Amino acid sequence: MVKVFTPFILFILLSFNVDANDIKIGEKNTLQSNILKEKREYWVSLPKSYNNNNYTKYPVLYLLDGDMHSFFQTFSGMVNQMSVDASPTIPEMIVVGIVSQNRVRDSSPTNSLTQYGGTKNQALNVTGGAGKFINFIKNELIPTIDSNYRTSDYRLLTGYSFTGLPVIQSLFTTPDTFNAYIAIDPSMWWDNQFMLKQLEPFYQKPSLNKRRLFVATSDRVSDIYPKNNYVKQLIEKLNTKPKQELYFDSITFGLDENHHTMPILSFYKGLRSIFDGYMIDDHARFRPASELKLHFEKISEKLGADFYLYEDIINWFGYERLYNAQFGIDIDRAIEFFLLNTEYYPLSANAWDSLGEAYSVKGENKLALESYKKSLKLNPQNENAKEKIKSSELLDK
């Protein structure tokens, strides 16, 4: 199955993989929650490659405030772009946007009537529901996503402003639920800095298992309420006294950013921090495939889950070395990349077909035939494999 991609053609294929008549960002779903006693809406955005195979499993990013300020469209688009570029900085991921239904209730860890501004507001008597909301995500939403989509066991939770509170609370109370957390300027002022005070009990709990937290804020402080940046205090405490097995990172923007301008920048920085070391450089395709494998073994060890470079780009690396004379043809290195793809994606008919082609170019006809047969077994409709097998059998007569 010949696929000779120049870098420009690869960019076109990866960037514009959409239906000719429609651009689909995601899909809307609802779930009846027994915990919250209400129907909850959530939106799902799938990776570019999701519908191209039936075997790849993907990490899941859960986004609170999914319906706020076009966050779902913006953040899911960022995830797709950052993961399918020729030098991806993060893995492909499923993005689940949780629609805010009662934002104040679901985000507040305690019941408090003190609103932003410092005055009492009886409308806040519904607050204190974050514990139930986290329980809903853990015990109802995540199992629903896992049963309906091909998910891996790596999960991220992201929240902004008031919904940054349950991100911190989830880490403090149920750190087994998510592997990584991004809290964008969380409302640490809430209820006399309740969540900030929970840091000490958090320190007393058992060591974590390779958890990662990224927190963002800015130097701008309100002249109304609160007049202290308690997010900066959280950052300072975690930097001064690290929690064992919690990789903590943060960014504090200067006066050129404020609470409302920082979400997109913070989300990007957060993803880069969580997946620090994931990115491959532009010259990876010129080096042995063993180096690429070692690179992802290291990032997998650091993150505590298996991560591989996505299939299409490894396939491109192989064809670059197999046919692109501009940088020098190296058939053996091409075979290395195709072999690595079959190791990472053993159920991919295309990976085996490409390996068969490389063996054929080298003149290793027996190995080529074996690869084509594996490809055909995985995809009985593979006409290219059928033709190659038939040609090989005719030559043997």
Question: Can you give a write-up of this model?
Answer:
The protein has 397 residues and is an alpha/beta fold. Helices cover 45% and strands 15% of the residues. Helix 5 links the parallel strand 5 (151-160) and strand 6 (180-184). The radius of gyration is 24 Å and the shape is elongated. Mean pLDDT is 92; it is low at 4-18.
Which characteristics define this entry?
alpha/beta, Rossmann fold
Per DSSP E runs of 2 or more residues, the count of β-strands stands at 8
Order of helices and strands: HEEEHEHHEHEHHEHEHHHHHHH
Count of helices? Answer: 15
Q: What does the average pLDDT come to?
A: 92
Structural class: alpha/beta
Proportion of β residues? 5-15%
- How many structural domains can be distinguished in the coordinates? 2
Poorly predicted regions? 4-18
Shape verdict: elongated
| CATH structural class of the largest domain | Alpha Beta
Reported for the largest beta sheet, the result is: 8 strands, mixed
**Helical residue percent band:** 40-55%
Walk across the major sheet and give the strand order. 1-2-4-3-5-6-7-8
CATH superfamily of the largest domain: Alpha/Beta hydrolase fold, catalytic domain
Mind telling me which CATH architecture of the largest domain this is?
A: 3-Layer(aba) Sandwich
**How far apart lie the N and C ends?**
24 Å
Radius of gyration: 24 Å
Per CATH, what is the topology of the largest domain? Answer: Rossmann fold
Compile the SSE list and pairings.
Layout: H1 7-15, E1 27-33, E2 38-45, E3 58-64, H2 71-84, E4 94-98, H3 103-107, H4 130-148, E5 151-160, H5 164-173, E6 180-184, H6 190-197, H7 199-204, E7 211-218, H8 230-240, E8 246-253, H9 263-274, H10 289-303, H11 311-323, H12 331-344, H13 349-362, H14 365-378, H15 383-396
